[in-house]
């Protein structure tokens, strides 16, 4: 249950610092995973983003202060991170359905979002085919683009990036460079930028040797890898597999996620067909 314990530690840290400015880097550090891994893991296991959880909890506590103290509304707004009464009122009304002044006068019901306590329900009804391998550092070559992360934890613009690479022949060029263990085009997320809320997304292949002039090189560190078989049309099967990995496989197998970029390996020539077979490579420890 190491995953649940790590996630609960990060939630406890958020709760202890709700009145402070919180960074995703500091929160993810509590769970001992990368910021991008943490955001995806948190979303899958709680159904809300980190930012949304913080917003809901702060507005819940702000409502309690309105009811139980005589503090000025403007002071409560500043206390919970809002730079103006107008911004506070807008956010408060969105969550509670009434204004702070109406809440103070008891003119409606308030919506309470309670502190999260993680409990893992190990379903395990659907089997997962995987293998554990240890690999030395290896090289991938390809192209990368800085992509924004949305409130849902997904990386926006990735589908368009793949469409461009397929249309302009880049994917075909990369396929010709495959000469090592992973036989397929790779999607890799790396280098989370908290200030801009972006990641570097790579479309690449594993390649041993000289890097062609048109492409960039990235070295994947030495690690132990859990390699999962993902069957089905990739746009549907990949998200489902990630959900099962985080909510079932990791809690029941005793591994922790290593701070190394995960790899989606599109090993089937047609990853959209219903019986497509692809892979997820997740570094573990």
Which key terms come to mind for this protein?
285 residues; DNA-binding; alpha+beta; sequence-specific DNA binding; Reg_factor_effector_dom_sf; Multidrug-efflux Transporter 1 Regulator Bmrr, Chain A; transcription
What does this entry look like structurally?
The chain is an alpha+beta fold and 285 residues long. It has two domains: 2-104, Arc Repressor Mutant, subunit A (Orthogonal Bundle); 130-284, Multidrug-efflux Transporter 1 Regulator Bmrr, Chain A (Alpha-Beta Barrel). Helix content is 40%, strand content 21%. The chain contains ten helices and eight strands. It has an eight-stranded antiparallel beta sheet with strand order 1-6-8-7-3-4-2-5. Strand 3 and strand 4 form a beta hairpin. Helix 1 runs antiparallel to helix 2 and helix 5 (73-79) packs across helix 6. The longest helix is centred in the last third of the chain and has 20 residues, at 234-253. Keywords: DNA-binding, Transcription, Transcription regulation. One of its GO terms (molecular function) is sequence-specific DNA binding.
């Amino acid at each position: 249950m190491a995953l649940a314990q790590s996630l609960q530690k990060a939630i406890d840290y958020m709760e202890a610092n709700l009145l402070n400015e919180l960074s995703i880097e500091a929160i993810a550090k509590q769970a001992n995973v990368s910021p991008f891994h943490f955001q995806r893991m948190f979303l899958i296991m709680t159904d809300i983003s980190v930012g949304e959880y913080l917003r809901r909890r702060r507005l819940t506590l702000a409502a309690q202060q309105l009811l139980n103290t005589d503090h000025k509304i403007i002071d409560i707004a500043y206390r919970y991170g809002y730079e103006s009464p107008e911004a506070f009122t807008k956010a408060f009304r969105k969550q509670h359905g009434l204004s702070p002044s109406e809440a103070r006068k008891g003119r409606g019901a308030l919506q309470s979002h309670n502190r999260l306590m993680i409990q893992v329900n190990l379903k395990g009804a659907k089997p997962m085919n995987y293998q554990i391998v240890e690999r030395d550092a290896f090289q991938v070559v390809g192209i990368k683009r800085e992509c924004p992360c949305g409130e849902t934890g997904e990386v926006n613009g990735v589908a368009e990036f793949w469409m461009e690479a397929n249309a302009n022949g880049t994917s075909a060029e990369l396929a010709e460079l495959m000469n090592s263990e992973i036989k397929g085009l790779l999607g890799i997320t790396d280098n989370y930028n908290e200030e801009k809320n972006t990641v570097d997304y790579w479309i690449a292949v594993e390649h041993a040797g000289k890097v062609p002039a048109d492409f960039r090189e990235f070295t994947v560190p030495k690690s132990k890898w859990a390699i999962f078989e993902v069957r089905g049309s990739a746009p549907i099967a990949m998200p489902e597999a990630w959900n099962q990995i985080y909510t079932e496989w990791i809690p029941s197998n005793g591994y922790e996620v290593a701070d190394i970029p995960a790899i989606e390996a599109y090993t089937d020539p047609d990853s959209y067909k219903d019986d497509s077979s692809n892979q997820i490579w997740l570094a573990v420890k």
